[in-house]
Design brief:
The complex is a heterodimer of chains A (300) and B (309). Chain A has 300 residues and is mainly α. Chain A has helices spanning 2-32, 34-56, 59-64, 90-126, 128-143, 148-157, 161-187, 191-198, 203-211, 216-239, 251-259, 270-294, 296-299. Chain A has a single domain (29-59, 77-298), classed as Orthogonal Bundle (MetI-like fold). Chain A is built from 13 helices and no strands. In chain A, helix 2 (34-56) crosses helix 12 (270-294) and helix 10 runs antiparallel to helix 12. The longest helix of chain A has 37 residues, at 90-126. Chain A starts with a helix and ends with a helix. The relative contact order of chain A is 0.14. With 309 residues, chain B is an all-alpha fold. Chain B has helices at residues 2-29, 34-39, 45-55, 61-73, 87-122, 127-141, 144-158, 174-200, 203-211, 215-245, 247-252, 258-267, 271-299, 301-308. In chain B, helix 5 (87-122) runs antiparallel to helix 10 (215-245), helix 5 packs parallel to helix 13 and helix 7 crosses helix 8 (174-200). The chains are: A mainly alpha (300), B mainly alpha (309). Chains A and B meet through helix 5, helix 6, helix 10, helix 11 and helix 12 of A and helix 1, helix 6, helix 7, helix 10 and helix 11 of B.
Chain lengths: 300, 309
Amino acid sequence: MSNTAVGAADVPAARHYKKKSQATAIWRRFKKNKMAMIGLVIFSIMVIIAVCSPIFINYEKDVITQTISQRYQAPSLTHLVGTDQFGRDILCRVLWGARISMSVGIAVVALSLIIGSILGASAGFFGGTWDNVVMRLMDILLAIPGTMLAITIVAAMGNSIPNLLLALGIEQVPKMTRIVRSSVLTLKRADYIEAARACGTSNARIIFRHILPNAIGPILVQATLTVARTIISIAGLSFIGLGIQPPSPEWGAMISEAKSQLMNYPYLVMAPGIAIILTVTSLTLIGDGLRDALDPKLKN
Amino acid sequence: MHRYVIKRLLMLIPVMLGISFILYSIMTLTPGDPARLLLGDGATEEAIEQKRDELGLNKGFFGGYVDYLGKAAHGDFGKSYRSGEPVYKEVFTRFPNTLKLATLAIGISIIVGVLVGIIQAVRQYSLLDNVISAITLILTSMPDFWFGLILIILFAVELKLLPASGNQHWYNFILPGLTASMNYTAGTIRLTRSSMLEVIRSDYIRTARAKGVDERTITYKHALKNALLPVVTLIGINLGWQLGGTIIVEQIFAIPGIGTLMIGAVRSKDTPLLMASVLFVALLASLINLVTDILYAYIDPRIKAEYSK
């Protein structure tokens, strides 16, 4: 009895120490990567904008109220990037759009992370029939090409926010599941897992306390890239009228509205497009940087 | 090798069954009655009931699915609710447009992607390499529909060189093809560059250099052959994805392809048409992936040896 008590006290302390030093080492490598740091700075600015925009922008007044007398204004001091076909300030709308894209992106990542971790970890850990069932199901989901599944779900079930999250999440779950599963497969043979099992640790605890924290690297990279992909996907769905609806200033919805004025006022599509590119590029840079930092061998 | 191919082909059956079940469930369990949609608001209850019978909607959830599978096993994928035409006819009239678009896009991505990737790898860390890297990074982060609109603004509105919509002539497909290829080209460039760099550093290239083989022969004959192996896989995956992924591009340029057909089918609750179009593309994509894997084994003797074990 006293033996197990000592073991239980030692193992978390050792793990904690190791985790901390590893994280510091990764951060040190990440910091050296100039491109990744640029990405981190841009993304941080976007997050600050998304969080703080209600302080300096009034949603009702600045984002959705139409002022016909102010239509198609060229950039000026009052409207830094001009106004759209309904007299709304484009900059205010684009900044507010960051809130929508970021929250959808993060919600989809959270969804696919939770489902993907549970499915992938249990499939990899238990193996056998359960593994087969889960992975064949993922094969089926992966075999439905491109955005076809997402479009079918939203078009059939209606484009409420929960349905959109489901449609976008279901595309990402198989990828997350595969990544978690392969990490678990390599880790479950490790000596420290064997030790944990010898101590009588429950399966759930082994998976969530001992395996997943050590598999966090590839999962984190995938999560970063998932936010990026989701921001593009939601913009695409909104663009063809199946995502977030106008007057909401989602970037894809803004581009969709501006499309009808393409011949006369092409500049209307610029600002939301640049916002998407900045956000997605910064996330890609962070993801690439993380991957290199996590696996220094890979880079050279 | 034969056993592997047969196994992969057999694996397609459960996958296709699974896809059909998912699609059938989404279409049947969501609100909205196809018969009511077809006949409009003015129709009487009896007329709707009769239409439901005619479309085979009164067999219940599982009854309807089993009925569908039974017919599909005999090659009958049903008739479109809306047009009454057999669905394969609709799919086959729309498919050539999507195929043209997808092959053009992949063609562009192969030619541009491989060439630019090699140039970058040969001149690693030069100004040209850095500039192209920055451009490809932005291109991979750019939504294709936005790129398409920019192309329309440039070539259709400003320069008036190319049409912004239509599918009658070959030049109608230039802008859509460029739009659809954009992300894939950037991906191919990045992969060719990194794969080429990896190969250039390997021992057999050093041996070739030591023997005094000239740089051009090394790059194009010795290095390229091995460097292109991962690129071939990427191209196969891309082509499969592209067939189902041109939906938004079809919408921008008003091309009547599979994507447009599919969106219309979901909106009008046309279950047989939706299932046929998605299943067709999914099957084709899976077959392309299988062919890519086989091709891969043929061009890489190391993998072929693995299979014959």
